[in-house]
């Protein structure tokens, strides 16, 4: 992953922050394609109106074929590049700002840098998630008169709700993303060091260790904040003008009163499977791209 600047044998003309940005973009694009089908199922399970995993899959495929599993992919494909790039770039900047002297960052400093990157990327993830959620919850499919396409949905929200409408659920997204990214980056470094002792010092990576470490980090980060994500999905699924929820706390109380505590774990299994796949691909793509951009193994792979 990332560490404070260290001497390298073959200097790259690109600044470290630029390399982090570009490598994050590569990993982000690959991760969207890998995880979109399970993400569509996750959103519908969290919404609570589409049955269990099997019923949701069957209804999606029956309504429009396999392509329905990729409903809402246009927004993340266009934006996840920027989102992942910003996450890794801001994480790298924070690492270098926190610790300018040591080649290997202590885990608590990795955690702090992760929190910073989570806060920064909330500005992007809030509107991206809102648009994706509403796209995925549509019953109508492309070609139907009632179907709302991605750009049409964006224009519709801006026209009826304004820019604040795109940031509905911003507070709960912040509450989700700060701890999630702290867990994310710290657990990745811990796992990578566990699977390849000394790798944080040498910067060496094996494809298998990258893949498994990334997958575990992604799953652990979701496990710690999933209840926030359930609330966020419900809150962002409808405009404020027609939503029964006044805010995130109102939404959480409503879910608990109507459906009990189990509702906060609905779709968790699907989410953890998706998180493992997506983040295994994301970190593998990031580290591979970063190595190619640097012309050598990154000095500190977390």
TrEMBL record:
Compartment list: Mitochondrion membrane
Main location: mitochondrion
Membrane topology: Multi-pass membrane protein
Keyword Cell inner membrane: no
Solcar repeat start-end pairs: 15-97, 105-194, 205-292
Domain of life from the UniProt record: Eukaryota
InterPro entries tied to this protein: MCP, MCP_dom_sf, MCP_transmembrane, Mitochondrial_Carrier
Record key words, sorted: Membrane, Mitochondrion, Repeat, Transmembrane, Transmembrane helix, Transport
A Pfam cross-reference name: Mito_carr
PANTHER family, per database record: MITOCHONDRIAL BASIC AMINO ACIDS TRANSPORTER-RELATED, SLC (SOLUTE CARRIER) HOMOLOG
Annotated family: Belongs to the mitochondrial carrier (TC 2.A.29) family.
Protein name per UniProt: G12999 protein
Organism annotation: Coccomyxa viridis
Gene that encodes it: g12999
């Amino acid at each position: 992953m990332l560490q404070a600047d260290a001497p390298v044998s073959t200097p790259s003309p690109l600044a470290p922050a630029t390399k982090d940005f570009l490598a994050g973009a590569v990993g982000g694009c690959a991760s969207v394609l890998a995880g979109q089908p399970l993400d569509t199922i996750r959103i519908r399970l969290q919404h609570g109106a589409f049955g269990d995993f099997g019923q949701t899959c069957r209804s999606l495929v029956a309504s429009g074929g396999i392509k329905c599993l990729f409903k809402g992919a246009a927004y993340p494909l266009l934006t996840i590049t920027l989102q992942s790039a910003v996450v890794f770039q801001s994480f790298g900047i924070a690492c270098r700002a926190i610790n300018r002297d040591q080649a290997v960052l202590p885990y608590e400093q990795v955690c702090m840098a992760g929190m910073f990157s989570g806060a920064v990327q909330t500005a992007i993830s809030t509107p991206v998630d809102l648009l994706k959620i509403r796209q995925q919850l549509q019953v109508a499919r492309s070609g139907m008169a009632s179907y709302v396409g991605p750009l049409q949905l964006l224009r519709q929200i801006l026209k009826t709700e304004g820019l604040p409408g795109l940031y509905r659920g911003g507070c709960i997204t912040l509450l989700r993303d700060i701890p999630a990214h702290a867990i994310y980056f710290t657990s990745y470094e811990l796992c990578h060091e566990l699977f390849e002792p000394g790798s944080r010092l040498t910067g060496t990576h094996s494809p298998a260790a990258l893949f498994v470490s990334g997958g575990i980090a992604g799953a652990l980060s979701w496990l710690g904040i999933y209840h926030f994500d359930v609330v966020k999905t419900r809150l962002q699924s409808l405009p404020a003008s027609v939503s029964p929820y006044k805010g995130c706390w109102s939404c959480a109380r409503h879910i608990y009163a109507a459906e009990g505590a189990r509702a906060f774990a609905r779709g968790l299994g699907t989410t953890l499977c998706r998180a493992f796949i997506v983040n295994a691909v994301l970190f593998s793509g990031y580290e591979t791209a970063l190595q190619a951009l640097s012309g050598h193994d990154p000095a500190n792979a977390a």
